[in-house]
Amino acid sequence: MMDTTKTHGVDTREGSGRMSAWLICMALVTVASGCGACQQVIRPADPTTGPVSTCPGGPTCGIDKALIAGITVTDECPTGNCDPGGNGNAKGLYTAEGGNYCFLAGGQQHFCPEAFIHRPKGLMLAIRYLNGVFGVIEYPVTARLASDSTPVFLTAVEGNRTQLTLKYKQNGVEHTLTGDDVSKVILSLGSMPMGHGDATQFISYDMRFVTDQKAKTEKDGVHRYRLNYREIRPGTAWLRHCAGDDETVVSFLPGQRVSGSTGYVKDDATVTTMGCEQGSIVTCLAWGYTPWDPATGLRDETRDYVFQSCLQAKRAAYFVGKGDWRSYTKRNTKIFRRDQYGFGKPQDSIDRVEALWSPLGAVCFNKENRRRPKADAWLGQNPDNLKTYGVGPCTPEDFTLQGKVFTGPVEDPSTLP
User: Fold this and answer.
1) pLDDT in the model for residue 133
2) Residue 164 and which of 107, 220, 384, 387 are 20 to 30 A apart at CA?
């Protein structure tokens, strides 16, 4: 479920001193998959003439490298409550609540594609089984030309930032496809066990990436694609991946693998992660929290830290670090957000602080300001005595070496259903 680090204003301040209220960080209204809010007020960011990626005056802005270095990416389930949920991802990472990132088989959801991985034996697609029977398994990906079905050897499915690149070899010559040309090849997955019922049942899929005027428009610098797929058997129609999302498009995160259970991130140059539009992965990229510098495309450890913090903040995964991997939010819940470096777009200040975030979840948490007081995850608990796993309240409004993103509710949480 969700993760947290230490209590704000106490051990989170090791070696950092107390950061003053000249916060350069900016607040943004966003649609999250929601939870929480707070009484303390963050003072509006002071104007700055310097680069938004630096904090002028006071102690140097920094991050707790030891915290992120100590994260272990795992899909094991210490609490026994880690089922991704009936919609394919209740935890809000690859799609939002109510969305779906799984392929249908026989009219039911079974296989949830998460990342293309380059192995010595060839290109693989990591598939999460929705029913949990097999967990995450890698299957080989083959390819053929869409024009005449000629088989080709697929060498790469890559992301240049968020731009998709497909590479294949034909007669010893390598071809590179980007933009509209990615539709020139059809990718295939073959002979995957269904994972329930008759163990001898197998299924195969065709997949094809396409662009259209809406999908290929770069909003916030993020490239978007449509992924169509179909069962490989006579009479089956092409279906659109991410069905149920507001926009049935996918985007890509190169060089990082995101745990579908915890949201923890592992650097891996062989991986290109794929997510639906409404999930935390793609949403955080669209909010401006890319792990790379938008100007140069180079990876930046500070931006990466804020991106990983955003993954937890967007889906209100307060207590991931405590072994509670749940998302305490609902689809389309609006929140304010602010990061220490101004990576996001400026808007209003945060009136009620909900939480301060790190890649391990909430560094501090004001339960009275939770964005979704009546979220399903809270049901059965005393609203005045919620289980917070020892995560203390946010008292000052300073950032810390661990916490780099603040969130707050847009609406009065008491009015939400």
Assistant:
1) 62
2) 107
